[in-house]
Design brief:
Blueprint lengths: L5 E7 L3 H13 L3 E4 L15 E2 L11 H17 L4 E10 L7 H13 L10 E4 L15 E10 L1 H14 L3 E3 L2 E9 L2 E8 L5 E11 L5 H8 L8 E12 L7 E5 L5 E7 L3 E5 L3 E2 L11 H12 L11 E12 L13 E6 L5 E6 L5 H16 L22 H11 L5 H11 L3 H5 L11 E3 L2 E2 H10 L5 H8 L8 H13 L17
Parallel strand pairs: 1-2, 1-10, 2-7, 4-12, 10-18
Antiparallel strand pairs: 3-6, 4-6, 5-6, 8-9, 9-10, 11-14, 11-15, 11-16, 12-13, 13-14, 17-18, 19-20
Length: about 525
Amino acid sequence: MTGRETFDIFVIGGGINGCGIARDAVGRGYTVALAEMNDFASGTSSGSTKLIHGGLRYLEHYEFRLVREALMEREILWAMAPHIIWPMRFVLPFQKGGPRPAWLIRLGLFLYDHIGGRRRLPGTRTLDLARDPAGRPLKKIFRKAFEYSDGWVDDARMVVLNARDAADRGARILPRTKVVSARREQAGWAVEVEDLDSGRRETLSARMLVNAAGPWVDAVLSAALGRNDARNVRLVQGSHIVVRRKFEDPRAYFFQNPDGRIMFAIPYQQDFTLIGTTDRDFKGDPRGIRISPEETDYLCAAASEYFAEPVRPSDIVWSYSAVRPLYDDGAGKAQEATRDYVLKLEDGAAPLLNVFGGKLTTYRRLAESALEKIGEALGTKGAPWTAGSTLPGGDFPAEGYDAQVAALKARYPFLEARHAGRLVRLYGTEAEKLVGSAASLAELGRCFGADLYEAEVRWLMTREWARRGDDVLWRRTKLGLRLDDREKDGLDAYMRQDLAACVPRGAGDPSEGM
């Protein structure tokens, strides 16, 4: 493998699992490269319901190990990234004759409160919806509810911050780079990659390959590795709609549908409500997936069973859809398929680790499990370290968001409170580095719409691999909800004209060589 850049581990896939594994591995002392054929979190990892949760409904399917692991992770992840993860209370209305009896729900919530080592999150309580503000937007037939704790996460930012931290620690991160082929050699793997922007190809060497391509994990096995028997994942489509804010309460709602499925209605980006998700088997290419008319009708009808004011298709301001690559365990219904992850190691002179399934909440534990497999194949390096770490910008107390906003506002009085709050939510303690020496809004450069200024766009291009308008508007921020078409086009044109500002392809600090 002489004459090529050589790594211990080559990771295929820039979703949460791939980026989490890369970060953990490089932090233990392995040399790591990662290739993602699109932008980071452009698939499943930005199409979630955006929750850090144990998975209350998984208890019905007896997935106690998965639920316990996920519950234990909630407070660990909150402490790792308090800018993009925070606690949220959920209101679960119930009525006599509903899909699940009250005693069963209460039993599930009792387990939820006690099997996961909850320390800081408050426990379950019962609400009288006739008196509690949570009852105001609901139909009057709902008189009682349970309220419990889980967490919220900016999913796409969690992915890119894992990639950022991996790069800062020395990993080579290759966005918009396709793995054309991977072939076993005497001492490892020869991995041919193509930069999809420039068309440039190169071959890298690695002692071990990690296939964490999510919905494309079987496609990688087939196309890049020449396998003809790759049938490991079950693709399940989940779609969400975003409507203008349906309620003022900061709590979210957990709705039980008559067909046994569940759905959330969640406060979203201050002025909106996020409603989802659906569960249906998906066949075909996950690229370009869109919500179907049937899913739109289903979400509107299901939410309207609970809200006094119906949810109509005309209320929708945005929708998104993604496929979950669940490990195919032969379940009869999509919603019954396991959400647990499965890791399969093919050992030998050129080991291969395939990653199937997983969820946002357990990505860190999945990475630790993957590193155990990597240690078996390559020899162990370092000890588990991520539980006590922080992601970039997350080095402040878990309950210190308001203090961070106040400090940023004091340092830069020209920032409006809402602007300062948004910057801290996205960048945490790094918001001050982003604003830098600016003494006025004018010194932040061109305004592209809303409160998106050139300084922030430049930060995202030089520090977070953003190259297109959509990278900024729909993954690293959600300002696509606030810019009009002309403003979106202007941002995209600006970014395409200045691609030289994109993150260099080398390892280490993403700003090196700027």
